[in-house]
Every structure is written in structure tokens, then in C-alpha cells.
Specification:
301 residues; alpha+beta; Rossmann fold; D-amino Acid Aminotransferase, Chain A, domain 1; Dna Ligase, domain 1; 25% strand
Length: 301
């Protein structure tokens, strides 16, 4: 019987999401017949390494955010020679660094929004871009720390006082519809449109039941649907990702354009998450999805 250690928790701002993802994965892999070893990760790296001894056959990486999906834990597992799910060190580090990822996307000819990297205190002096624009951490996920600055807003002091993420990315706000596409290795699954009453698809909208509604497949022109699928797969490949990823896009319907926002190399696996939903749409149940990931685990660069 394959012995699978599930890493979940961690020490990023997304710890609670990771704990929820991990619990779902533990249940699913147990149902699928694996010998599952839950490991709740904390800031104690030595304790995590000790829990991986004797080494499992596979590590299922259900961590989110910094140290979990930025290449850090991937490097540890490569060093230990333990195969793991999702992307390797290089792709993980590129994807979580929004500036680096956008540079890769632009080089690959994929559509990205105008953006700048700033020190957050710059907001006190002037608008780094003409509003409306989005302010976001360079290396966090789940919309943690994201704000939208609109014309006439006077929120710079509030944003600066609450900021604890290091450098910030400011990005032109793209009006339109929120879309997402999940990729399983070499297959883009389906386009989902996300509808929410929030100002944008924030942490609350992503993880609180009933805070958003998912329409899949999204009701779009056929050409736009195909373009969204193509962009998601191209972004996955450009970063060198493996396993499952999720690409987030905006569809500026008024101007007929799609903009790639980012790629998540550790998509959420909670009851409200998009990857399990898209997998279910193509006939892949959650235990099957988790098994698919385990079967493709490897040590990677």
C-alpha cells in the first residue's frame, strides 16, 4: 500500500486554508485506499523532517502561501529524495513571485496588465499608476492583502498602515468578468466564471460558503472560451509547472480582451475551491483527483 504523507498548515497567511485543504485530502486519499500520514506543518522545520522519517512513498503538498508553494518545502523534499505532488522548486518560486511570473508570461507573449513594483510608502506621495489600480503583495495568494484604489479614493494611509508584506505590486485594474481555468498537466479543463457580491474575488469570497457563485462552463463566446483555455495551458507550460495549476483571468468584455492575472501552483482543495469543482465537471471525483496527483508525484527542479 502506498504511504502518503499530507503536509498541511504551514506558517503563511493562508494557514487556515491549507488546514482545510489538507483535511479534505486526508479523507479523500484514505477513501482511495492509501496509507495516509497527516503532518501538520509549523515553523519547526526539524519537526517536519522528523515526521518524514521513515520516508513516505509520496508527499502530498497541501500547503499554501509562503514556504509552502514558493519552492521552499519543495527544495527540502528534493534534498530528502521524497517524491511530492504539484510543481517543483523553480516553477513554484516563479509563480508565487508575481513580478517574475509576469515577466515570464510577457516573454511567452501572454496578455498581462501594466504594473509596477513599489515600496508601499510611495502611495503616500502619489498614485503609482492612474487609478483605478490594484495593490497586492508580490508573494502572497488567496487575495491576501489586496486592495483596489479607485479615482477619488483617499485610502493610501489605511493601506500603508495595514501593510506588512514587503514590496507591493500595483497593477492596472481590468474591468470585466472574473474567470479561472484549471490545468491538469497537459489539459486545460473548463472555464469558470466567478460571481460575487464582494468588491472583488477576495479571501472571504473564495473560502466562505455562499460568498460567491461559480458558473461552469462560463457563458462566453466560443472563441473567448478557447482563448482562455489556451492561455491557461500556455502559462502552465511557460512557468514549467507540473501536476495541477489554476490560472486566473479577467475578461474585459467591452474591449474583447482577456488578461492573465496569475497562476496558482497549489490550487485550493477546500469544499468551495475551484479545482475540485472543475475536475468534477469533467467526471473526475475528488478521491480520483487526489489519486491522480499522487500518481504523478516526483522530485523536480
Amino acid at each position: 500500500m502506498t504511504r502518503v504523507a499530507v503536509l498541511h498548515g504551514g506558517m503563511s497567511a493562508e494557514r487556515e486554508v491549507s488546514l482545510r485543504s489538507g483535511q479534505q485530502v486526508i479523507i479523500a486519499l484514505t477513501a482511495a485506499g492509501f496509507d495516509v500520514v497527516p503532518i501538520e506543518v509549523t515553523a519547526d522545520l526539524a519537526a517536519m523532517i522528523a515526521a518524514l522519517n521513515p520516508p513516505p512513498d509520496v508527499v502530498f503538498n497541501a500547503l499554501h502561501g509562503r514556504f509552502g508553494e514558493d519552492g521552499s518545502v519543495q527544495g527540502v523534499l528534493d534534498y530528502l529524495g521524497i517524491p511530492y505532488t504539484h510543481s517543483g522548486v523553480r516553477a513554484s518560486a516563479l509563480a508565487i513571485d508575481k513580478a517574475a511570473a509576469k515577466a515570464v508570461f510577457a516573454q511567452a507573449g501572454l496578455p498581462v496588465a501594466p504594473h509596477r513594483i513599489i515600496e508601499i510608502t510611495e502611495l503616500a506621495d502619489h498614485h503609482p499608476l492612474p487609478p483605478p489600480y490594484v495593490v497586492k503583495p508580490v508573494n502572497e495568494g488567496s487575495s491576501v492583502g489586496v486592495s483596489i484604489v479607485k479615482p477619488g479614493d483617499n485610502r493610501s494611509g489605511e493601506i500603508i498602515s495595514e501593510w506588512h508584506f514587503g514590496p507591493a505590486m500595483v497593477e492596472q485594474y481590468i474591468p470585466g468578468r472574473e474567470l479561472t481555468v484549471c490545468v491538469l498537466e497537459d489539459r486545460a479543463l473548463v472555464v469558470t466564471e466567478i460571481l460575487t457580491g464582494e468588491a472583488f474575488y477576495d479571501y472571504h469570497a473564495k473560502y466562505d460558503a455562499g460568498a460567491s457563485r461559480h458558473v461552469l462552463p462560463a457563458q462566453l463566446p466560443e472563441a473567448i472560451t478557447q482563448q482562455a483555455l489556451d492561455i491557461a495551458l500556455a502559462a502552465h507550460r511557460a512557468l514549467g509547472c507540473r501536476g495541477a495549476t489554476r490560472a486566473d483571468l479577467r475578461y474585459d468584455e467591452a474591449n474583447g480582451r482577456l488578461i492573465l492575472l496569475e497562476v496558482n501552483t497549489q490550487p485550493g482543495l477546500t469544499p468551495t475551491s475551484l479545482l475540485p469543482e472543475q475536475a468534477g465537471h469533467i467526471g473526475m471525483g475528488f478521491p480520483e483527483l487526489c489519486s491522480w496527483m499522487v500518481e504523478r508525484a516526483a522530485c523536480r527542479v
